[in-house]
Amino acid sequence: MKRVKDYMKLPYNYIVQPVTDESGSYFYAHVLELDGCQTTGETFEEAYYNLSEAMEGWIKTKLEAGFEVPLPMKYNSYSGKFVIRIPKSLHYKLAIEAREEGVSLNQYAVYKLSC
Q1: pLDDT digits 0-9 by tens, 11-37
Q2: Which of 11, 26, 74, 84 has its CA 20 to 30 A from that of 54?
Q3: Are residues 27 and 14 in contact, defined by beta-carbon separation less than 8 angstroms?
Q4: Are strands 24-31 and 14-21 parallel, antiparallel or unpaired?
């Protein structure tokens, strides 16, 4: 797959969110898989439309420079399980906190990650 229009047909994951900061209120949009592919708009619809243009430019630039364009992440590709190494002191602390809450360490880690 080496054509922009082919990539544009793929199911990439978009995020469009409202923002209010020192410059005012607007919508910020980006593509999760395409690092740095982002835009804004005054409305949700404008940001979403602008994102399509931003994607085309982002993908075209990467292809012309000889870089690979990441494919979309598929939700069903994830099992819900991953292994992480942490310092013994943190493992100990989390185990104590989980015991105090009356839940398993796994349940407590899920709670902490979701905050």
Answers
A1: 999 999 999 999 999 999 999 999 999
A2: 74
A3: no
A4: antiparallel
